[in-house]
Amino acid sequence: MMLYLMDIWDSVRGFMAAGGNVLWLVAFVLFVMWALMIERYWYLKWISPKKHRAIIAAWDAREETTSWYAHRIREAWVSQASQELNDRMLMIKTLVAICPMIGLLGTVTGMISVFDVMAVQGTSNARLMAAGISMATMPTMAGMVAALSGVFVSTRLDQQMKIRLEKLKDRMPHH
Fold first, then answer.
1. Is the pTM of this model over 0.70?
2. Burial level of 149, CB count in 10 A (0-12/13-18/19+)?
3. What are the TM regions of this chain, as residue ranges (predicted)?
């Protein structure tokens, strides 16, 4: 088992080395993005149901739920719940949008490396140019894959949050 993990780690290190320093930046942004998305799923599964039950209990405990003031209180509670649900979603969406841009930064730095090799060695050394080309293509690919995974998961999170908020509104009648 330990040997298998070492083989995986060696493969990852080789991939990261071939992709250049920008690939480490993509990995860091991907890690932060996924940590935030996992936290949001955890919030949806464990924290928000408790908070929503407390809001519904407070609403049901009110004697009067039809006046203008009661409607404003309900709106405030729903707004606060919405704000707590959407907390960190802007950061997640920003990180999703940044991933391809960081990948393009890798393309630029890789191509600079290729042009540097061409200036120093000439165009006859394909092996040296290949290292720069891999530094150009790997971060781009990694940035796009990171962004696609973030798009799918953040869209799913948005849908679940909207559903959760609508269920909260439905359980707080205001006739």
1. yes
2. middle
3. 22-43, 95-115, 127-154
Alpha helices (runs of H) in the chain, residue ranges in sequence order: 2-19, 21-42, 48-61, 68-85, 89-121, 126-170
pLDDT of the chain, 175 residues: tens digit per residue: 777 888 888 888 888 888 888 999 999 999 999 999 999 999 999 999 999 999 999 999 999 999 999 999 999 999 999 999 999 999 999 999 999 999 999 989 888 888 888 888 877 777 777 878 888 899 999 999 999 999 999 999 999 999 999 999 999 987 6
- Rounded CA-CA distance 82/166 in Å is 10
